[in-house]
Specification:
The chain is of the alpha+beta class and 111 residues long. The protein has a four-stranded antiparallel beta sheet. Strand 4 and strand 5 form a beta hairpin. The longest helix is centred in the last third of the chain and has 11 residues. It starts with 5 loop residues before the first strand and ends in a 9-residue tail after the last strand.
Amino acid sequence: KRKAMLRAGGGEVWDDQTLLDWDPNDYRIFCGDLGNEVSDEMLTKAFTKYPTFQRAKVLREKRSGKSKGYGFVSFKDPNDFVRAMREMNGKYIGNRPIKLRKSTWKDRSVD
């Protein structure tokens, strides 16, 4: 039986199975202001210099495949997380400078 991954936001609650793709104990960064040209691979390439980098994902519209303009990157070690936040904020990935913030995904999960 699959585990329910309940999320809450915008007054709604839903089962988000994509959370199973991520390490539940990671240190995750929200990457904002991404251009439509930025792919998972481009985001990965930008952050693989950090030894404990785990995963990068650009969120896209289901029907059109167009970027939603944001994504996430995750790290196993908090030191790499802090270094990436400090070093990569404002760096160009694709055609725009990236804006980084600590992800609040854990705050939005329903236990």
